[in-house]
Design goal:
single chain; Rossmann fold; Dehydroquinate synthase-like, alpha domain; 11% strand; alpha/beta; two-stranded antiparallel sheet
């Protein structure tokens, strides 16, 4: 085998229970004035925000605090940046879910740019990011997007003419990621499930990606081995179990590493336009689409019957084995994987996309704007249409 590939940098990682208690000393190592970005209130209710603020204050840091409610929009990013331009900030500390981490990375970058963030978004803006940014410390409180390990910040505008696009540069990888499973135990079951399904989708899609490498394969399988048994436990009766939460957080972090290096597939190629059109939580969108996408991809790989297609079938069957598939044929094991994913939709009470307003009127528009990204073989427009219709 010729080991020919490129692997992107990773943030420095500190993982383990109670590591969030070190945030004051960590942030103070970057300077004297910090911008703290958090979400809407989960940290407050758990008492973690109060502890983090006290720890930051003990180090003598001056802290400006902003909250991000929902997914970050251009208007929100621009407003925070406008309010912070003259504050001589030296580090951004983002503590929250994927939206908070994305917002933290975008704000850190835009504090070094001029104009609206829209001008720098892929596929929309006309200006290339300079790559200048304040250092970012990313502290996830949910386990899903892997944003703590990636170089992009996803910015959304929902509705007619909406979009879900990335602000992207290699210099936007957080300087440090802190994985403290104690911060995740307060995540309610629906959030745990949706975020976990996003991480699962990213691990599977990067594992079977046409851009996968031996290194991303190893990391994706490592993430899957930890996440698959732990996610149902973290969703259910062991929600307070630090070990379960740590395993899911580790899997989510690795999903960020592997997507950054191998790319993603058709589920994310459809979930992006869907998230711009309707206010659907990203993890819910991925969870709805993944079982059908796996089944349709396996159909196409089986029909192709090429050496590359057979290798992809073997990969999918290895994932199926982690779900307990026992059929003797690799293709039959792949079918079992789709069945297992459908059961997880029921077990996790994942709402259908129709509950967020998806109708047949949206389907053609979404099918025409969707991308297969790095799927092992592309899904046809008709397959994408049926995938969406099946979850209306």
């Amino acid at each position: 085998m010729l080991f020919r590939f490129v692997f992107a940098p990773m943030p420095k990682l500190i993982a383990g229970p109670a590591t969030a208690g070190k945030l004051g000393a960590i942030a103070a190592s970057f300077g004297h004035r910090a911008l703290l970005i958090t979400g809407g209130g989960a940290l407050d209710r758990s008492g973690c925000l109060s502890r983090i603020k006290k720890d930051l204050q003990r180090t003598g840091l001056q802290v400006d605090h902003f909250r991000i409610i929902g997914e970050p929009s251009p208007a929100v990013i621009d407003a925070v940046v406008d309010g912070c331009k003259d504050k001589d900030l030296e580090v951004v500390l983002a503590v929250g879910g994927g939206s908070v981490l994305d917002a933290g990375k975008a704000i850190a970058a835009m504090l070094k740019e001029t104009g609206s963030v829209v001008n720098y978004l892929e596929g929309i803006g006309t200006r290339a990011p300079s790559g200048r940014s304040l250092p970012v410390i990313a502290v996830p409180t949910t386990s899903g997007t892997g944003s703590e390990a990636t170089k992009n910040a996803v910015i959304s505008k929902v509705g007619h003419g909406g979009f879900k696009k990335s602000l992207r540069h290699s210099n936007y990888i957080p300087r440090l990621a802190v994985l403290d499973p104690e911060l995740c135990v307060s995540a309610p079951p629906p959030i745990t499930a949706a975020c976990g399904m996003d991480a699962l989708t990213q691990l599977i899609e990067s594992y079977v990606s046409t851009q996968a490498s031996p290194l991303t394969d190893a990391l994706a399988m490592e993430g899957l081995r930890h996440l698959i048994p732990a996610l149902p436990e973290a969703y259910g009766q062991h929600a307070m179990d630090i070990g379960c939460r740590a395993a899911v957080a580790y899997g989510a972090f690795l999903s960020g590493v592997t997507l950054a290096n191998a790319g993603l597939g058709v589920v994310h190629g459809v979930a992006g336009p869907l998230g711009g059109l309707l206010d659907v939580p990203h993890g819910v969108a991925c969870a709805n689409l993944l079982p059908f996408a796996v089944a349709a991809t396996v159909d196409n790989l089986t029909a192709a019957d090429s050496p590359q297609a057979r290798r992809s079938i073997q990969k999918v069957s290895r994932v199926a084995e982690l779900f307990g598939a026992t059929q003797s044929s690799p293709v039959d094991r792949c079918r079992q994987l789709s069945d297992s994913l459908h059961r997880w939709l029921e077990d996790f009470s994942i709402p259908r996309l129709g509950q967020f307003g998806l109708t047949s009127a949206h389907v053609d528009l979404l099918a025409s704007s969707a991308s297969n990204k790095n799927n092992p073989l592309p899904l046809s427009s008709d397959q994408i249409t049926r995938m969406l219709q099946s979850r209306c």
